[in-house]
Design goal:
alpha/beta; 3 domains; 5-stranded mixed β-sheet; 3-stranded antiparallel β-sheet; 9 helices; Putative multidrug resistance protein fnx1
């Protein structure tokens, strides 16, 4: 077959003219899969092999596109559609509101489930993709949970904290507690066995901390300490061990001698021990009926 003289190829004087015809032929071939690309190559005077390979690549890309259409600007291999991403964000928000938090495996399982329900079903994404996607998502981030008992978790809310400080300001004004030395802050800490560690979870970006419930059936040694509001000398600690009697071999040589040592069946503070600790506190805080008032701050444990 003879072609008119040209400066580029066959009937096309320039490369731009050829590429324009090539793209037109490819679109027509993609729109009519019943015809072979060779037919359109002959119609537009194109190189058959190049057009056939180009159409084949475009058909594969279209098959990968989960939206059901071909995108000429790319992103045909996007893993999640916009509505799927929104569903995943909502899932993690609900998990956070429930006090659990969504772990990496939970979110990956949710994404895998969504893709498996597509038509046709799609395979699970890779972990590498998941980490990259999470970094690019400005609405989500990861934090480490902090296990806490259920009784304390129920009190740990923004509303309860605001109410507590409102009551504190009212009490300080009523009893004229005007310096840190007159404010005592009591708290207990435990060395626990069987307490779970925190785990990394994915939460909305506005969430900075997440407390999760830890089991109550664990052994514990409790240490009570009271500090002053001005940050100066604290009272000696008060130690509570699980058991019915203090054994001599429990007393370490490193103890200074002012510490209080007691025991309870669980190793926790109870009503009897809190009364004994009150005597310990009065002694070392120099409190009394004929002395200036002191304000003692403590948590809402039932024994307190």
């Amino acid at each position: 077959m003879e072609y008119p003289a040209s400066n580029y190829i066959k009937i096309y004087a320039t490369k731009i003219d050829y590429e324009k015809a090539f793209n037109q032929a490819r679109e027509e071939a993609l729109g009519d899969p019943s015809e072979q690309p060779t037919i359109f190559a002959n119609i537009y005077f194109l190189q058959e092999d190049f057009l056939r390979k180009s159409v084949c690549r475009a058909q594969k890309a279209r098959h990968r596109n989960q939206y059901g259409g071909y995108k000429t600007h790319g992103r045909n291999n996007k893993v999640l559609s916009p509505w799927q991403e929104e569903a995943i964000r909502q899932y993690r928000y609900e998990q956070w509101k429930a006090g659990n938090g969504a772990t990496f495996s939970m979110v990956m399982s949710a994404i895998t489930h969504l893709r498996a329900k597509m038509n046709p079903p799609l395979p699970a994404p890779t972990k590498r993709w998941f980490v990259s996607w999470l970094k690019k998502n400005p609405m989500l981030h990861t934090i480490h949970t902090k296990p806490i008992s259920y009784a304390r978790l129920d009190l740990h809310s923004e509303e309860s904290v605001k109410e507590w400080f409102a009551d504190l300001y009212k009490t300080v004004g009523e009893f004229e507690i005007n310096n840190g030395k007159s404010t005592l802050i009591m708290d207990e800490s435990g060395a626990r066995v069987g307490c779970p560690t925190g785990e990394t979870v994915i939460v909305p970006i506005e969430v900075k901390e997440l407390y999760t419930v830890s089991p109550e059936n664990r052994k514990s040694v409790t240490i009570i300490e009271t500090t002053k509001g001005d940050g100066k000398k604290t009272s000696p600690p008060y130690i509570i061990t699980p058991g019915k009697k203090i054994m001599d071999n429990w007393i370490a040589s490193e103890l200074l001698g002012d510490e209080g040592i007691d025991c309870s069946p669980t190793g926790y503070i109870n009503n009897d021990i809190i009364m004994k600790y009150a005597d310990h506190l009065f002694k070392y805080s120099h409190a009394g009926r004929n002395k200036p008032r002191k304000l003692l701050l403590l948590d809402a444990h039932e024994s307190h």
